[in-house]
Write a structure and sequence with these properties.
Elements lengths: L2 H14 L4 H8 L7 H10 L3 H5 L2 H7 L6 E5 L2 E6 L5 E6 L2 E5 L4 H11 L3 H6 L5 H17 L1
Antiparallel strand pairs: 1-4, 2-3
Helix pairs in contact: 1-3, 1-5, 5-6
């Protein structure tokens, strides 16, 4: 998926929760509105993506203050010491989480800052329950085949 397509999907989700792209664009990017398509192209190609995705207005709308959300926590592997002082590898499977906190957008902004790819971080929240079920079934099938 191209960067402008990703942005459009993210913006549409935020707009369903009250985000106004045109107002935000006029306040933060330019004094004239070029239209939806051109505005998204400008945000994607001129390096202004960060201005949008780290905007408090966008974050509040994207994570819909206080609404229940389901998202996917990716699989991870890390090292730690066990009780005997030996280094062991911990592998966590991918799982879903739900949240209801009213200030969850602040938490996610902090996580995006330390993330290697903030757009990929945001894309995790676009997964619907049906898609998650399919992905989890696929993951289970892959693991049982191994």
């Amino acid at each position: 998926m191209a960067r402008d397509e990703k942005l459009l999907t993210l913006i549409r989700k935020a707009e369903t929760n009250g985000f106004d792209l045109q107002r935000w664009y006029l306040d933060h990017i330019a004094t004239e509105w070029p239209g939806d398509g051109k505005a998204i192209s400008i945000l994607a190609t001129e390096g202004r993506t960060s201005a949008l995705i780290f905007s408090h207005d966008f974050a509040r709308a994207f994570w819909n203050r206080g609404a229940q959300m389901q998202f996917v926590v990716p699989a991870s592997t890390y090292l730690r010491l066990n009780g005997q002082g030996e280094v062991v590898t911990i592998t966590r499977k991918r799982f879903s989480r739900r949240t209801l906190k009213p200030d969850v957008w602040q938490y996610h902004l902090r996580q995006m800052v330390v993330s290697d790819d903030p757009l990929a971080y945001l894309e995790r929240f676009l997964c619907s329950e049906a898609e998650f079920a399919v992905r989890t079934d696929d993951l289970g099938a892959q693991m049982s085949a191994s």
